[in-house]
Amino acid sequence: MTAAAADIHASLAGATRIYPGVAGTPAVHALGPVDLALTRGEFFAVVGPSGCGKSTLLEVLAGLQRPTAGTVTFEDRKIAGQVPEGIGVVFQEDASFPWLTVWDNTAFGLRRSGVAAAEIRRRVDDALAFMGLKDFARAYPAQLSGGMRQRVCISRTLVLQPRLILLDEPFGALDAQTRLLMGDEVLRLWRATGATVLLITHALDEAAMLSDRIGTMSARPGRFLEIIETGWPRERDSTIVSEPAFGEITGRLWHNLRGESLKSLGYSKLAAE
Amino acid sequence: MTRVGWIRLIVIAAAVAALEAACRLGLIDHHVVIPPSEMAQALVRLLISGQDDGQIARTFGIVIVAIAISVAGGFALGVVIHALPRVRRALDPFFATYYAVPIFIFYPVLIVLFGLSVMPIVLMGVATAIVAMVIATLNGLDRVPRVLGKVARVHRMGAMATALRLKLPAAAPYLFTGVKLAVSYAFIGVIASEFILAPAGLGRVISDAYTDFNNPRMYALMLLLVIVATAVNMILHVFDQRWAQRRGIGKP
Amino acid sequence: MIAAKRAADTLLLLIVMVLAWQALHQAVGATALPAPIPTFAYLAKFLPSARFGESAWATLVSFFYALLLSYAIGLAIGVWMGFHRLSGAVGEPILISLYTLPKVTLYPVVLLIFGLSVAGRVTFGAMHGVLPVALLTMNAIRNIPPVYLKSSQALHLSKWQVIATVLLPATLPEVVAGLRIGFTLTLLGVLLAEMFAAKHGLGSLIINAMQLLQGEEMVSVALVLFAFAALANALLLFIEHRLHRRV
Q1: For all residues of chain C together, what is the average pLDDT?
Q2: ipTM for the complex?
Q3: Among candidates A169, A59, A149, which has minimal Cα distance to A95?
Q4: Which of A45, B26, B33, C184 is most buried, most CB within 10 Å of its CB?
Q5: What total of structural domains would you count in chain A?
Q6: pTM (2 decimals)?
């Protein structure tokens, strides 16, 4: 880690997020304090039980939320209240715009950033080809499956050539097989763009399969319990599920998280066992 | 046309035919309702003679202006109120009871403010239609998925850009419902006002025809209103269906 | 706590509206719009009078019968079209067209058939209210999630049990919404009829006061009507919200 430590792409230092109480409800301490240093070009996954603050962590890192305490940096600059240029986010909910075709959806961000029309066309066509959506360029999202709509959202992020890609449980609404295939897509994307990727997921196998490092989070308020290095080669895909190391990593994740999951479900007594 | 469409056409045709038969056979008094065929004849004659062209133009012109003001104004108000949740909550009971108030009581106020021009009638139409547009706008903005707001911030869009390029298109189907309602309420507001209060316009002419026992003229104009109102609604409906289908929204 | 805050906000809104009324009065003069205080004074005197009582009773009677008709016919049509898919598909656009038609254009026909009688006013009122009740009831039944019916079958419920314990509670919130809109529109229809015929009921009081330039009477009657409609709406809305929260 020492040589790579010189090239920290984004980081959180003591980041904490407390949601203020509204009209009589108590405040919610959702996150932290959390420390995280993302090396440029790495694939980092965050796993944890529901409600542990994973999404909050992502939104704080993206600049969508201000931390109540602590700092957030991206490319050596502090983030404060605005999403910096160079960060792309893919959300869990379907964020494709139903009133635009797939092509226009993908071009959306580019059109607003003053890029030349010819360049827009090139980048959109490339992104759609890369995501396997070329034949659906003229279709509307309502005509596509959930997985394809997520690919549209990813294309829309891709064309802006982000250097840091944040994925908030993007495959949560998809079935298990589609998820595995989408995992391969994400790896392909990661290698082709050379971007740093942070993936939030509740699926242990997904985290174990895709990432260089995995951070396990405790139940609320979310803090990192352990950061595990997988040591996978860069050229990997979903077939590594058959490697013995995969089972070990998944087992270690579950060992970390079982107690936390029980806690988040309310079985506080059982967790002590 | 679909099977359901054919059945509907047959049902309507059968109803009209039944009315025609009942009138011709004397089951319905000629002084009360004239046969539909005579209504149609009277309408054709009236349109050819151009006798009421001025009134027709005046009324439809007023309705169009009222619609324009209601849609634009209603949308703007809806956007503002949506951004102020506390104001919205305070206004909720007001919206719920708005249509119970006979807004005709404001007619004298409008006469004083605008004289005996067309403005009072236009504003009666606006008063009837604008609230429907406001409610539909609020509804539509409610249904904009929260994730779109986050996408806007990831793309670093300002408030104006977010409203025009994301919220407006996202809410569009529901806004269109508001437009449809505004159209029919404007019709209702204008015609009802002309009926009871105005010195001129189609409503007034129909009312006069009634008091003069001039059934053919009265029915001719009523038929005209029914045809225009239905045609406008059908056109709006077709557009609504088409756009909704593209969006994958199930509109019947 | 929250309810008290909302009530305070609504009260604030009412105060703002009364102030706007005062301002408007000063802009247009007493004949067009009387000031709030003289109006309230007049209202206090007028309300217990025999003339008001007679008119209010006439309106109430017409309204009651019209509402009964609206609800009965509306619910019947709505239930039939909700369950019988074909009738629903065929009839819905027809109902919607009738709903958006300015029914005041059909008023002369009602007058010709019924003359200036109570039956005419009741019919006209019912014509306004029946459509929203029918449309919303039909929609409520159509929108019953199919999984409810499947579950009832799996639980071996009898037909009447299904209707009473599953279908009724499932459709109730939307049906009540229809009843609420039907209430408001029926009242409006009865008032419109009275305003045109100008002989009986509160609607005629308004029109006559308007023509005789008696602004205070006109606004007083309007206030009474508004208060009545507002209370009824609030009650039905309250019921509707309670039903929605159970769903």
Answers
A1: 87
A2: 0.80
A3: A149
A4: A45
A5: 1
A6: 0.79
